[in-house]
Amino acid sequence: MIKCVILDDELLAISYLKLLCEQIEEVEVVKAFNDPEIFLSEIDRINCNVCILDIEMPGMNGLQVAERISGSKKIIFTTAYKEYAAEAFDLNVVDYVRKPIKIERLTQAFEKAADLIQKTYQKDFIEWNTNIGKTVIFTGQIAYIRTSEIDSRDKDLLLKDGISIVLKNLNFKNLLDMLPAKDFAQVNKKEIIARSSVKAFSTNEIITTIALENDHFMKLQIGEAYRTSLMEMFGK
Asked: What are the UniProt keywords, alphabetically (predicted)?
């Protein structure tokens, strides 16, 4: 399923795009925006994998918006102006669809996005500089990640067998881009949990399978900004 968000400064264009998307199988419009600033303030908390961006908008154009979006979200540009095509593809976007948009052309763009998303999900390892050198880590072995207390630029990664590895100079945004989105979620500003490490959860807390002393298990407090996406991940 492709979950997409639309950004276009024209309300009629948004309505038309929604109408087209409703006719394409396996595509759901999660939310639509007509203001780039509001879009950017919310996009990281929205459970979506494709963003449809109009290029020509007042204040901030779609190219500028795209530069600030997490790489885990695939981008489809829409515009009435062909002169933006080269610059758009320099940003490594999925597709560039000219207005007026036809459903066949939009369907083709979504098919390209679906192929890229599937390839992302199939990747089962990350590779990064760590405290033991450049290291390949299989994502299926990761239990939990947190910001290092020694250096906030680093991330402490806990494997399921209890081994700890320090990822050097890596922020959460880039780290989440490398991890399979269906298997990992940010819980608060400082912690990421593997879905397979969740034993139980409420709206405020996650009980993990990670054992502590005295037969207790690690508990994580859910940050308000991440609650909605976490509940959606767990189907709530």
From this structure: DNA-binding, Phosphoprotein
| Identity at 8, one-letter amino acid code | D
Query: Which distant-in-sequence residues (6+ apart) come within 8 Å of 192 by Cβ?
Result: 144, 145, 146, 172, 175, 176, 179, 184, 185, 186
Over residues 72-102, the pLDDT tens digits come to 689 999 988 776 655 665 566 899 999 999 9
Q: Which residues pair with 145 in a beta bridge?
A: 157, 192
**In the listed set 80, 98, 122, which residue is the last one of a domain according to the structure?**
122
List residues bridging with 220 in a β-sheet.
Answer: 206
Q: Are 11 and 113 in a shared domain? A: yes
Residue-number span of the structural domain to which 168 is assigned: 125-233
Picking from 72, 18, 2, the residue whose alpha carbon sits closest to that of residue 44 is 72
Alpha-carbon span 186 to 167, nearest angstrom = 16
Q: Residue 167: count other Cβ atoms within 10 Å of its Cβ.
A: 21
- Residue among 182, 178, 201 at smallest CA distance from 128: 178
pLDDT, tens digit (0-9, with 9 covering 90-100), for 151-178: 999 999 999 999 999 999 999 988 988 8
Report how far residue 171's alpha carbon sits from residue 151's, in angstroms, rounded to the nearest whole number.
Answer: 12
